[in-house]
Amino acid sequence: MKIAVLGTGMVGQALAARLSGLGHTVTVGTRDPEATLARTEPDVGAWLGEHPEVTLAPYAEATAGAELVVLAGNGAASHDMLAAAGGDHLDGTVVLDISNPLDFSAGFPPSLFVKDTDSLGEQLQRRFPGLRVVKSLNTLNASLMVEPAALGTSSTVFVSGDDAGAKALVVALLESFGHDDVIDLGGIETARGTEMVLPLWLRLMAALGTPHFNLKVVRRAS
Amino acid sequence: MKIAVLGTGMVGQALAARLSGLGHTVTVGTRDPEATLARTEPDVGAWLGEHPEVTLAPYAEATAGAELVVLAGNGAASHDMLAAAGGDHLDGTVVLDISNPLDFSAGFPPSLFVKDTDSLGEQLQRRFPGLRVVKSLNTLNASLMVEPAALGTSSTVFVSGDDAGAKALVVALLESFGHDDVIDLGGIETARGTEMVLPLWLRLMAALGTPHFNLKVVRRAS
Fold this sequence. Notes:
The structure is a homodimer. Chain A has ten helices and eleven strands. The first copy, chain A, has helices spanning 10-21, 33-38, 44-50, 59-63, 78-84, 120-127, 142-146, 164-177, 191-195, 198-208; strands spanning 2-6, 25-30, 55-58, 68-71, 94-97, 102-103, 111-112, 132-136, 157-161, 182-186, 213-219. An eight-stranded mixed beta sheet of chain A has the order 3-2-1-4-5-8-9-10, with helices on both faces. A two-stranded antiparallel ribbon of chain A has the order 6-7. In chain A, β4 (68-71), α5 (78-84) and β5 (94-97) form a beta-alpha-beta unit.
């Protein structure tokens, strides 16, 4: 599958490397490739050297012809990323939205710039109604997103979205990463539930001293 | 231990019955016992008939001399419950706050009337600084709060509070219920994390078609 991963940070790199390793054709999208390569934090140039099969391109070029666009950047930039990618002209494209609406304006821990009565996933779906937005993977650490087996036991990820076909595509991708417990929460408005997990996740990371954990929804076998 | 359970609904009944069954002396606190007994929903009179060892009393009487006060009512009423119980005169008492800041003013699913940059647990601790507030058990169904073994496998509950002794008392109580994975998140401000789980919990209940589930924090053995 031809996939565009928007975002060059930890999440973008984890997704791009894993998807590429699974045989997909991956282009990482960024605003300005030259500016991205000029930075050393993150050192995307060095990372690309280790992943020669992944290419770097401006948002619009990366997403042209992509069957799947992965939003893997800062949530505050998600709107602009999709707009720069020409979101209005990508009708029908599946968007896997991993971003969280983090607001660092008051320092750490961040609060959320949208919550409870709306969500970033819904905002994006409303602004780009032709896209098929699926919220997922925003409740765990980047390395575990793509390699959940590292925990040694089953844990849960969630999908929220209005388009059944788009969700099926994302679920198949999650299963190819090793996820064995994907719960379909329903429409994109259920992203309110998963985006609000971040405040617990941040306190758990502090209490456990590691980001290497995930939630498992324990229920009786149905 | 002498325990006051404030709240006569599902959560209050589950806690009172379980605590009483474990040998504690339990009084259920309510605003006006006569009015409570006159209602049929919930039918507290019938429930008390099945639990003759539990007594019903006004808030102030129920909490007088209690070593532990359990806030098991509607979160919107928690402030008033503690005030009616004479919260300013209960200095040193441990308060197990199970309540969630649910706002049903726009119907179902409820939103939260405090979130993200504050929490109901913190509000209560600020308003009644002499109390030793511990937030816990607000992330799962009433029957599983007191009987987690019904899930057949380990799941997680959290404690948040500023007083180590109060948390130790609550953790011992949770263990007596059968909880085998209690994570201490830190100070009462970490209640922001657990109170914001409710939006996910509500969507999970809808998706799974049952409230009989809980979260397990899966991490590598430390």
